[in-house]
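Hi L.,

As promised, Rod shape-determining protein MreD:
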Amino acid sequence: MSNHIANGRLIVWVTLFFGVMFQIMPLPSLVELWRPDWLLMVIMYWAMALPHRYSILTAWFLGVVLDILLGAHLGIRAMAFSLVTYIVVLHFQRLRHFPRWQQSIVIAAFICLYHLVVFWLEFIVVGGVQFKTEYLQPVVSSIFIWWWVFWVLRNIRRSYKVR
């Protein structure tokens, strides 16, 4: 394996690590409800940019890691990440060519789907979980954060020539 390929993979995994860290870092209670889904956005970016290398298995693995770190029921976020990533990989060529504003709306729809799948699975597994509109607040914040996440990750990919 060449050094260039190994470095590119290292760069991607470092960005995914930072996505995990941003996802679990403590925030004040007022801001906590609006926390963007950092890790899911990073996964979706790499699934659009390099779908042959980072897709469903990567999403499933990181979902299990996030379930363990959050102390949630094992596999719930893994299933939701995998489903959303599958849809992104199916349509990656189309998503790449959308303007950023349109891409952020589609990303928000995917994040909404993620939250609904997590709610549905927790409802089935745990039972008694009630749906609240606050549950979808990260969708709104992720619309605005996606522009920044896309710009940062694209510049990282280009400057380190990740392929």
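The mean pLDDT is 94.

Thanks again for sending the construct details.

K.
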